[in-house]
Amino acid sequence: MEIHILASGSTGNAAVFKFGDTAILLDAGISARRIERGLAEVGMRAGDLDGVLLTHEHNDHIKGLDVFIRRHHIPVYTRPGTWEKLPCRHGFPPECCLEIEQEFNVRNVGITAFDISHDASDPVGFSFIYGGKKVVMATDLGVVTAGVEKALEYADAVVLEANHDLDMLENGPYPRFLKQRIKSSSGHLSNINAGRLLSRINCREGMRVFLAHLSQHNNHPDLAEKTVRRFLIDSGHEVGKDIILHRTAPDHRTSLAL
Description:
27% strand; 7-stranded mixed sheet; alpha/beta; 9 helices; Metallo-beta-lactamase, Chain A
């Protein structure tokens, strides 16, 4: 099993999960050219993908979708409400537009779409089961719900949002309405809330956690990791053994083989 975070941040998000011979692109929030280049860096081509999964319709998650799908004709899976917000779907072959509910499969990979709190039409996170391992994508979370906690329990790897530092956001350049949106129950998860979440869920020893979707204006990788680490240590976790933290970035790839 391989995880490749091609880009993660406020400017664009895309990741590739590889489960044996099955490869899935999670979101397409960077240009088609950057997606193709990221795939090439890990020895893949667009034609190797078995599907594209969309978490929601915001531009930093679909920026390259239109060109990428029209160019390569790969099936796209997302919720009906998200499809309604994507005018580009009318340019896709009908067989590429697949609606999902809660549980479905892409080839031999079992996938569960779980609800998240975000200001999009019908946003979801995804949990993947393959070969006895569990991998979870959970970003763009305004609040942590019981469903989100359940999805993360006993995962082998998690891509988890740590979007902003509260002090940096409050004292930063964003207008007041945007600060309020980010901090709201339908906004983004702070470093503190990411740390609290990880400190209280039931974890499998050695769980890998990618701190993702960091704001370039309201966060810093060192600060995100330091904050989350503090919560884990205070709750009795041995960071680096019980939970292993990984950074992501908007402009370069982060990869892991499980």
